[in-house]
């Protein structure tokens, strides 16, 4: 089966996807979360949020989960997404799936936090992981395949009819029969690994307030501004220095990703991927502590998102909790 990719998207069956009414903080309503299509094999749920949402719908969070079959340690995950309070359609999307490549399972996870519409996040959802696979080095050089695919996907997006908007991305790929983990990111969506209860941030926040990031923008001819009560912004517009898309700002922004290659050993308990809406409400240690208290990753992701809203996060909030479970 060399050079073939078989997606485990089998008969639609009973998945783990659900919606639930979410508590409302005083002073604002909560829009309906983007709907999720779930296709289920006998041993796993494969989910891709489709991003369709109505700001006038009932107050709901969307959540669910799945598991690998052959990876050791086994990968068991849960996700939760909740639309923001601005009245705009949901702009956070996710991917969580297991594929069989050359008779070995590879698990893919991603959070895509778009701005100026969800088109860029949808593009990533449809193309990014396929591009990683098409690079051909997932098993021999997965970090290199990921780097090349990120850059290719950004070039293709800029050449596409997508006229405006962009997206962050934080992705995780579990391969090597469960023994290795590749995490990559552009923007401020974050990945945090728990190692024996200690948080290890595997992503880099591409925030224009950081001196090194500001220097990148200025070296490309742009400028970074900070008005009282606001965030640092590139050219006074975007609170990110790196992202997919953003044609109108690309001359002053970078598409260079950060990549971490980690050995999954017995100290690795779980990985949390989240959008800025999640991590603006928690520090890394609190996220780890909360997930450690909850055995079920679906429940853990749901509780993190709901608590972030209770703390008056007005942004879209998305989270995937990926547990490494010895069989």
From TrEMBL:
Lineage of origin: Eukaryota, Viridiplantae, Streptophyta, Embryophyta, Bryophyta
Keyword Transmembrane helix: no
Pfam families: PP2C
Family in the record: Belongs to the PP2C family.
Region (Disordered): 1-68
Assigned EC number: 3.1.3.16
Catalyzed reaction equations: O-phospho-L-threonyl-[protein] + H2O = L-threonyl-[protein] + phosphate; O-phospho-L-seryl-[protein] + H2O = L-seryl-[protein] + phosphate
Biased amino acid composition, Polar residues: 1-23
Organism annotation: Physcomitrium patens
Alphabetical list of PANTHER family matching this protein: PROTEIN PHOSPHATASE
Domain PPM-type phosphatase: 76-324
Record carries keyword Coiled coil: no
InterPro entries associated with the record: PP2C, PPM-type-like_dom_sf, PPM-type_phosphatase-like_dom
SUPFAM superfamilies (alphabetical): PP2C-like
UniProt-recorded name of the protein: protein-serine/threonine phosphatase
Cofactor(s) required, per the database record: Mn(2+); Mg(2+)
GO MF assignments: metal ion binding; protein serine/threonine phosphatase activity
One of the GO BP terms on file: regulation of intracellular signal transduction
CDD domains: PP2Cc
Principal EC category: hydrolase
Keywords linked to the UniProt accession: Hydrolase, Magnesium, Manganese, Metal-binding, Protein phosphatase
């Amino acid at each position: 089966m060399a050079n073939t990719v078989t997606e485990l998207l089998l008969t639609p069956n009973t998945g783990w996807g659900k919606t639930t009414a979410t508590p409302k903080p005083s002073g604002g309503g909560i829009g309906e979360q983007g709907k999720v299509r779930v296709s289920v094999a006998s041993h796993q749920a494969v989910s891709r949020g489709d991003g369709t949402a109505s700001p006038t719908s009932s107050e709901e969070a969307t959540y669910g989960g799945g598991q690998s079959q052959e990876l050791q340690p086994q990968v068991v995950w849960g996700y939760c997404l909740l639309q923001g309070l601005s009245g705009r359609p949901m702009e956070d999307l996710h991917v969580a799936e297991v594929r069989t490549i050359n008779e070995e399972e590879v698990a893919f996870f991603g959070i895509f936090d778009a701005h100026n519409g969800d088109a860029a996040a949808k593009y990533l959802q449809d193309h990014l992981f396929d591009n990683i696979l098409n690079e051909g080095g997932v098993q021999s050089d997965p970090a290199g395949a990921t780097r090349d695919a990120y850059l290719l996907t950004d070039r293709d997006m800029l050449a596409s009819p997508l006229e405006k908007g962009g997206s962050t991305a934080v992705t995780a790929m579990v391969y090597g029969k469960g023994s290795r983990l590749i995490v990559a990111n552009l923007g401020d969506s974050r990945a945090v690994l728990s190692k024996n209860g200690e948080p290890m941030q595997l992503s880099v926040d591409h925030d224009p307030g950081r001196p090194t990031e500001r220097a990148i923008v200025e070296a490309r001819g742009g400028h970074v501004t900070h008005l009282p009560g606001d965030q640092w912004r590139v050219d006074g517009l975007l609170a990110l220095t790196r992202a997919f898309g953003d044609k109108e700002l690309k001359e002053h922004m970078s598409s260079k990703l950060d990549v971490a290659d980690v050995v999954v050993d017995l100290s690795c308990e779980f990985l949390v991927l989240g959008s800025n809406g999640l991590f603006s409400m928690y520090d890394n240690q609190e996220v780890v502590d909360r997930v450690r208290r909850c055995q079920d990753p679906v429940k853990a992701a749901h509780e993190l998102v709901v608590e972030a809203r209770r703390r008056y996060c007005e942004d879209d909030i998305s989270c995937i909790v990926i547990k490494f479970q010895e069989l």
